[in-house]
């Protein structure tokens, strides 16, 4: 929808040369109070070729004036971003992914709070991006504006509804982009496009100036390729304090949910586990059946379970949770937009039309129960994670579908995706999707979920772990034997976990036995040797501990724990010089390691 002055000009001017003169004249006139903008709407093959079909409209909103030196540079200075066409920008009509919506609405009178926050902190907005109609979809397809091209898999869907924003980041057209996440609208496209996608705690980021789909589920999310940019944007939008004492982290693996995934565990779950083992401040991981945890702690879900299923079946519980989520979305969409839908009768794509029709025909009688499920879910996650836990799950269960696939071919795909997506949507917890390379040409991702309000903790955790995660993902993708040893791999990891449990129970000999069995099945795993060395240290078997640590270091030269444990073993064997070298090496790898620092000082005194 064009502005009224341009409509008048179009009606009276047909000469291209005249339009050039008029365009030059207007260049200094069409300026908003808050920013200068360049406007260019593109369609069809031109847009797809030039920007992967990500953008609906190109313009510029320049950053607010920066403070003069010697003031510090603004945190987002020099960064560009794009916005999903659901955010209001003063002077522009917000299209909501549908031409009939655009036609029946006026230009916005104010700019969304989050956009102003980013402009104030130095970022430049360069345009609006494509989305599923009315933010009602998971595929990223739009019959009116086209489907943005997934840079990772061009013949497959980018995921939605924030498809254009995800593609703009994945194609390196912008540094970061804003989307909204109601039922996976940021997390799914982040996973399919191989980038980082963040859904904040519900209510943590302002939605003023954002068109609603379902207020109880809607959040403003963002995409980035670089974890430091994700972190900086998060600090601005969440208004976080920059300094906070470091807390220990406890990883909780939802083993039952990884059973849904098509990706081998050694490329997902074990990558996270190994990355954490190489970092300090991470407690031994916990493995749970998440579906059963929800079944035991969210009793209001019973009415949403299919009569033929048992609530104690974990996966059926998550299907019930996704059913409740969709019911809540429909109820609130109906309240928000039923009047517009019935009066305008918009032209919609088949999938969106089905969603909208179901929504406007939805009864509101269960609304109180739906809100109760949401409250119980938040409490269930809080009891599980407390203030130091991070739940690890697959972001999605399946690779992206081919574009233009018929609905009946993809029902199971949507069921599995919604089961995973419903956890954060219905609990309001924060979640981040992290890329971990590829499997058979498809992007892999895992998600970290933290408690409601734990956004800084989660963002800091991503920053802390990202490099190690990518390193381990590379190792996993290039480890040829894994393809043929899944059974041994699973068994050896199970033995390692049993060894960890025995160690925690101070059963040192039992721990050594379990770790030894794991090594027999997979002798190329540095962690097994390193863990067995820890048990040998407790038993006073210092030579065996030294030998195990040496083997671990030969397999992984960046294994900080192996250097620390070998240093401890050598110190106990009165090999102070060699021990000092180990602790020095640990400090090179991890300069802030307190144990290594204290040991180095102690050994220097002994040697002097």
Automatic annotation (TrEMBL):
Q: Per UniProt, which keywords does this protein have?
A: Membrane, TPR repeat, Transmembrane, Transmembrane helix
According to UniProt, the name of this protein is Amidase domain-containing protein
Please list every transmembrane segment annotated in the UniProt record, as residue ranges.
18-35
Q: Where are the TPR repeats?
A: 492-525, 560-593
The record's section on Gene3D superfamilies has:
Amidase signature (AS) domain (3.90.1300.10), Tetratricopeptide repeat domain (1.25.40.10)
The stretch of residues making up the signal peptide is none
Q: Which PROSITE patterns match?
A: TPR (PS50005)
Q: Which Pfam family, just one, is annotated for this protein? A: TPR_1
What are the Amidase domain coordinates in residue numbering? 73-226, 317-459
